[in-house]
Q: What sequence folds into this?
């Protein structure tokens, strides 16, 4: 089965889906979206969830204590704290007082929870990069770069460029461009006291907190529509022609193939991506099948599917590869610590699947334990005209359950 091309699903320029938005900037669209038949109900639903006091995602409604500690990182696993601090200080030195005040929040401010992944700006938290002078914009991205692994920063920037590519495809560059993202700082940048940053916008959301030598980057939302750039300024050298997330997608298919038929059937919660057996509310207009996205900081997500302990060794090896690739945005030291933490809970980890698994079939899967949730979901079109989920539009989510999203468990 051949992989469908996103170019088969482009709206015509005069189609109302895109034509009615043409000429709107991000702030005008933020108002217009409230009355949009697709975006409006989502916005109203999310209003009920933010702001709420932070608790954390759980599997049963009860936060499990003792999973995270304030101890210093092991040697070789330290966060790049000094590089992050230097980058943050350079950014702050560029800002007039007005922008400094707009950028900065308390380390435990509720605005941490205001991030969202749609193209419309629901909450104008921090500063908007496409409204900043290039030196300020570049300095903000330098904070991100100092905090991530090289491959993590490259992926983030590629997804931002794909967003700009999509904006050009549908002639909506004021709404979707390479820099249509909000950036904020939380806490005063310090080498010892907890502080962090947040970057969010269409298909990219990262929340990073550093406390001395310890680091948490979570929640993370990374996605793409389409999943590659095949033309224009960023085609070729700057952005790979390869489709994003191709490894985790292929390894997930391989993992399903490594399961015995009976075990594969147990892992499959629903046969179809849009399944009549799904209860009311299981399929969300914007999130579709994924459960741990924006404004879901306190959601109860029960375990589903099969325990990892029931998998054969070949499947577990593929699970290791998926997890390692999924957290590759972390610098080497914190990545090693996080991998050890996740693997240390394999005896309490569950794997679930929705949809097909062969060829180019669209699918959803979730890996869930007391310390991590990893989700991948193929989606229908938002600015592409596919009415069923397709591999060229996907969302991925990372959560740290039981109270450590936003590094909250590391705060004194």
A:
């Amino acid at each position: 089965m051949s992989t469908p091309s996103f170019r088969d699903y482009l709206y015509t320029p005069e189609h109302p889906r895109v034509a009615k938005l043409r000429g709107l900037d991000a702030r005008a669209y933020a108002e217009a979206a409230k009355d949009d038949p697709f975006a409006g109900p989502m916005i109203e639903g999310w209003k009920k969830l933010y702001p709420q006091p932070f608790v954390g995602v759980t599997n049963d409604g009860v936060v499990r204590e003792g999973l995270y500690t304030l101890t210093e990182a092991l040697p070789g696993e330290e966060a790049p704290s000094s590089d992050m601090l230097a980058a943050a200080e350079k950014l702050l030195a560029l800002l007039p007082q007005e922008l400094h005040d707009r950028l900065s929040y308390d380390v435990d401010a509720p605005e941490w929870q205001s991030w969202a992944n749609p193209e419309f700006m629901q909450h104008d938290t921090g500063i908007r990069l496409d409204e900043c002078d290039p030196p300020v914009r570049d300095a903000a991205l330098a904070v991100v770069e100092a905090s991530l692994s090289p491959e993590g920063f490259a992926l983030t920037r590629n997804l931002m460029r794909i967003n700009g590519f999509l904006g050009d495809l549908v002639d909506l560059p004021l709404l979707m461009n390479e820099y249509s993202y909000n950036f904020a700082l939380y806490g005063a940048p310090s080498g010892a006291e907890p502080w962090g940053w947040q970057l969010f916008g269409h298909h990219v959301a990262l929340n990073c907190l550093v406390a001395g030598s310890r680091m948490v980057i979570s929640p993370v939302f990374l996605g793409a529509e389409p999943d590659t750039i095949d033309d224009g300024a960023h085609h070729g050298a700057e952005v790979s022609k390869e489709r994003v997330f191709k490894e985790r997608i292929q390894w997930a298919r391989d993992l399903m193939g490594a399961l015995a038929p009976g075990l594969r059937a147990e892992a499959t919660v629903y046969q179809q991506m849009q399944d009549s057996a799904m209860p009311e509310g299981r399929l969300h207009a914007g999130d579709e099948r994924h459960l741990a996205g924006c404004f879901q900081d306190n959601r109860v997500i029960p375990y589903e599917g099969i325990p990892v302990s029931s998998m054969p060794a070949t499947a577990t090896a593929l699970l290791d590869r998926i997890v390692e690739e999924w957290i590759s945005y972390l610098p080497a030291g914190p990545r090693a610590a996080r991998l050890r933490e996740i693997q240390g809970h394999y005896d309490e980890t569950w794997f679930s699947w929705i949809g097909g698994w062969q060829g180019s079939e669209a699918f959803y899967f979730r890996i869930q334990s007391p310390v991590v949730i990893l989700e991948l979901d193929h989606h229908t079109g938002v600015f592409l005209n596919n009415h069923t989920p397709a591999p060229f539009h996907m969302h991925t989510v990372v959560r740290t359950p039981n109270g450590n999203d936003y590094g909250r468990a590391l705060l004194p």
User: Anything to note?
Assistant: The mean pLDDT is 95. The CA atoms of residues 57 and 401 lie 5 Å apart.
